[in-house]
């Protein structure tokens, strides 16, 4: 590399006084601006295959899931320019609010000029305002003031999980470098049994089922997306058999569940390293039923910020059997018919968890080192850093580990 700060003759392969380079010179490049170290390094490495010096992260694909199969919105007109990802709406359009039933948002299917000569399909990445959205892929043509429709991409969760060959989003996510995110909306209660399985996944490319912002529950029943299974079948409501699966923000209401032996969220063989968080399960009825289950599957998985209560029949808030490395954090189990936490392996860690008013043990089994800051109503909570033997109602004094105590003072409430 030669840096010329003033005008002078540039010699390549020669000192300019008769001294010459005895060899081959290749890839000579001259620039009239200063180049950064990164630019020079990339130019050098770019002589080799690109995969030897950089990798691309997974492509995140968002698809909405809601029970409403009709057109959600089509007022006014839509416009977008070629190569743009910004769609603006005019003619009186005002998209429904993010917290509304029938909200327009991430993953929804937007079709401009439906059935016309200029028809083009998009999927929404974000709702930017009442009259603007950003889509996930750029337009291939100009659209100015054209008619449009907005619909849910899928009407059942299983349809989203199905392989691409069956119009779903499952498949070989690793080789196709995809992160698939299903975004649920509270159009109405879901009523189905779902299997997340037979997909090829890894730590960055997996199936992720979530709820749209503004549509999520606030920790109380009936405030978000509800799954009410009434299928008369002995099975799991949501069965996970793919590693790295992520489930969050769904409420399972069992008040309409039929008699039978089943579990609500179940990690089976293959469903390791799952992450289940902010899930509510309640009013679970049946002959034998557990809110959460890790049974010979779900190794090194995490259940976090989840609530299960009013579990009748013969079942528990969570059961862990023949699997190691499960971690239960910041969860609550209340009024369960058998046990709150039914742990049948010594490799489970439970932390910051409340289990009370179980017919049997609030916490059953032997827990791994690191289990601490738990509360029970029968003095069975593992660890020694919180008062056990408290009542399931009334005022209780306890020592709880908090990551951030700023702004707290004596007498403050927290959840």
Summed up:
This protein is mainly β. 3% of the residues lie in helices and 30% in strands. It has helices at residues 37-45, 157-161, and strands spanning 59-65, 77-80, 86-90, 109-112, 120-129, 132-135, 143-146, 148-151, 178-184, 194-196, 207-211, 226-227, 238-240, 246-248, 251-253, 261-267, 275-277, 280-284, 288-295, 302-304, 307-311, 318-321, 327-329, 332-336, 341-343, 349-351, 354-356, 363-364, 375-376.
Radius of gyration based on Cα positions: 28 Å
> What order do the strands of the largest sheet run in, or round the barrel if closed?
1-9-11-14-17-20-23-26
Q: What proportion strand?
A: 25-35%
Total of helices: 2
Measured between the Cα atoms of the first and last residue, the distance is: 62 Å
What overall form do the CA principal axes indicate? globular
Provide the structure class: mainly beta
Textual characterization of the structure:
The chain is mainly beta and 415 residues long. The chain is 3% helix and 30% strand. It contains 2 helices and 29 strands. An 8-stranded parallel sheet has the order 1-9-11-14-17-20-23-26. It has a 7-stranded antiparallel sheet with strand order 7-2-3-6-5-4-8, with no helix packed on it. A hairpin with a 2-residue loop joins strand 5 (120-129) and strand 6 (132-135). The protein starts with 36 loop residues before the first helix and ends in a 39-residue tail after the last strand.
